[in-house]
Design goal:
single chain, about 525 residues, about 35% helix, elongated
Length: about 525
Amino acid sequence: MPMRATSSSWARTASTCLFVAATLTVVVVVACSAPRDAASARRYYGEQLAGRLEPLLHEAIRFPTYRGNTAARDAQQAWLMKTAAELGLAATDTGKVVQVDLAGPAGAPVLGLVVHGDVQPVEESAWSIPPFAGVTRDGYVLGRGSCDDKGPLVQALLAMKALDAAGPARTHTVRLLVGSDEESDNTDIAEYLKEHAAPDYSLVLDYVFPVVVGEKAWTGLFLDTTPGPRGASPLAYRVESLTAGLAPSIVPDHAQLALRWTKGTPAWGDISERLAAVALPEGTRLEVNARAGAPDVLDIVALGKSAHGGVNLEGGRNALVALARATEGILPPSGEADLLGFARMAGQDLYGTGLGLVEDDPVWGRYLVNVATIAKQDDGSLRMMIVLRRPPPRTGAEIRSYLEARVRTFEQQTGAHFKFDGYWDDTPLIINPDAPLVKRLLAGYQRATGEAAKPAVAGGGTYAKRIPNAIAFGMWFQGQPYPGHDVDEKIPVVDLQRGTHVLIETLADLASGPKIDTPL
């Protein structure tokens, strides 16, 4: 039978053991006693992870994940699975969406982060660098997707790692969802939700800080026509071809019309002089030249500046509208002339005045109208796509009816004939600015930046329309033009780092607190 220790001998023994333990494990004790909160997670990020941000973003940009490039999409998803594993995060390839988890307790609510890994197409010849090279220059990371949306993808991965390594104890699972066709078909999230539960609430990292409480609807007007002459013409030339733009959500920086001389010796002088005398919209210009080796063809090229058609429409310079204005009165009757005539009307300004859309809501503002593309279809017809970012209160059915009436009136006045079609299903997203999640996001932004800011209303649409209880939160800072979808897309390194700190602050708050039962 062991001897029972007296209280004094027990105290001496305990003191000795604690002293020995302290001397042997002082580093562990100090480490365990360090606070695990938002500040410690941000500090850990700054000391251990910030240097990885640019190299990882360079790697992500090098996957040319534009529409149709499934090989690049698959390679990027494999890279994402590998990178997540290296960061100690659990990743699952669910098909069009990669799910990356930072687990909380069993049965914990799920806080979602949502980004997309696909990008808009590019016209490589217009870039000053290869668009998928992924480089840092003069304090910016350059490349397609640097800000839309591969920068936020990398920021989210590193913020999750910082939260795991040094953040407070989690009450939530943090789940990053990386989609793959947001810039095109936008079916990825819908397919994911058929087999997987949505997060309890989600932050969509694909717009501007501090938080977006309204997103206009994406409405597409498609006008198809038969190219070529429409009736007899006394002119000695005809329209040969017409193309413009790169994608519906990009302000077109290039539009080209070709004329072919059909009667006798080409004499383009009068037309060239008339084009040279046209007052073009600011920031656009024309190049007019007889084609080398084919002097009977006159190439008329309008050049402008590309920009995101929803976020930075004002920053673009629409080459298609410039071409339409420059060629007014010089074209023979044709399907191409009809499209340019409608483009001229619809592009009277950026807000739909030429279409009679003059409403100006104090919160939502006006419509945003991008006369975006003209391209030949598989059946040989020419299609012009005009994208409208639509505020409330009109519904999709109402705007369809309204625009069809405007098109039919134009046809009656000009003799044009269009096949009318479009996309009308999207609706504006309206979020209560006093909702609990909105207030938490505003408070987190202020803590991280020292700046009080008001919620924003967005011209573009995000995944927040596709997922229940989702809201756009960053990662672009307001006050400078948004370069997403633009030539030489770039993002300041200082903003990448600053935005990651904002995200860490926010995750430390939301993922360690009680579940928000009615977030929005």
